[in-house]
Write a structure and sequence with these properties.
The chain is mostly helical and 258 residues long. Helices cover 75% and strands 0% of the residues. The chain is built from 12 helices and no strands. The longest helix has 31 residues.
Length: 258
């Protein structure tokens, strides 16, 4: 094996060890927080996301290997979600933790009245997941320039809206205490809008930081940005494109009567 081949193999093994070790740490955290949750039915409903996402993340190691940065950001978000599902989002005792560690309650310090852990997780969804989304868009859709920053923000907002609809549907379906615990609105009629806004803000911050780094270090940044906004096809689509496709198949539109 050549020196380059050995180096690549060593890097691949190191990357795989990193992924498996970090996934193992998350697994230990998940198992620890699966013991005696505050509300078992709510915990089970919240962990549908984890049980669907983690196997997909593991499978991606083979067919779509993510960077260590994306991998770490995803597991950090899932860890926050797992913590919230253990206590239910409305009852995570961060005030008690901060009082024990710092001698001050966060809500008292900031003048807050409700439990804001769910707000933190929605903000973290945008902040932590936008970069993995960007990596997907760059590597799968070949997004470049402006679109490499806008599309992760767009996907964050759209998936946040879908999740809020899912929460509403689940609350309507299950109803009672389970529906209330899962929805976690805590009596705020604008809860869904605030959650989506915070996710969008987190994604915007992540993309602005990424843009600043790339603007500093990417040599062709300005050229790529300008090229991404250039019109690639002068002809319109819609009925004009349909007419071109029909003509390409050898069909002629009927001649209008004189």
């Amino acid at each position: 094996m050549s020196r380059i081949g050995k180096s690549r193999f060593a890097m691949s093994r190191g990357w795989r060890r990193f992924c498996l070790a970090s996934l193992g740490l998350f697994g230990l955290l998940w198992l620890a927080l699966a013991v005696a949750p505050s509300d078992r039915p709510a915990w089970a409903l919240e962990n549908v996301l984890v049980l669907a996402f983690v196997p997909a993340l593991f499978a991606s190691m083979r067919w779509f290997p993510l960077s260590r940065l994306s991998w770490t950001l995803i597991l950090l978000f899932l860890s926050l979600h797992t913590l919230g599902s253990h206590y239910t989002y409305a009852e995570v005792p961060y005030d008690a933790w901060s009082e024990w560690l710092l001698g001050v309650r966060i809500n008292d310090l900031l003048g807050l009245e409700r439990n804001h852990f769910d707000r933190l997780v929605h903000f973290s969804y945008g902040l932590l997941m936008a970069y993995p989304m960007r990596e997907m868009f760059l590597r799968v859709a070949d997004a470049r320039g402006f679109w490499g920053y806008f599309l992760p923000l767009d996907l964050t907002l759209s998936t946040s809206a879908i999740f809020e609809l899912f929460e509403w549907a689940a609350a309507e379906l299950f109803g009672g205490d389970l529906g209330v615990a899962y929805l976690g609105s805590q009596g705020d009629q604008w809860d869904a809008q605030k959650d989506m806004a915070l996710a969008g803000l987190g994604a915007l911050i992540a993309m602005l930081v990424t843009l600043a780094v790339n603007r500093r270090w990417q040599r062709d940044f300005n050229r790529e940005w300008a090229e991404s906004l250039r019109v690639k096809r002068r002809l319109p689509l819609g009925e004009v494109a349909l007419e071109r496709m029909v003509r390409a198949e050898g069909f002629e539109p009927p001649t209008p009567a004189v």
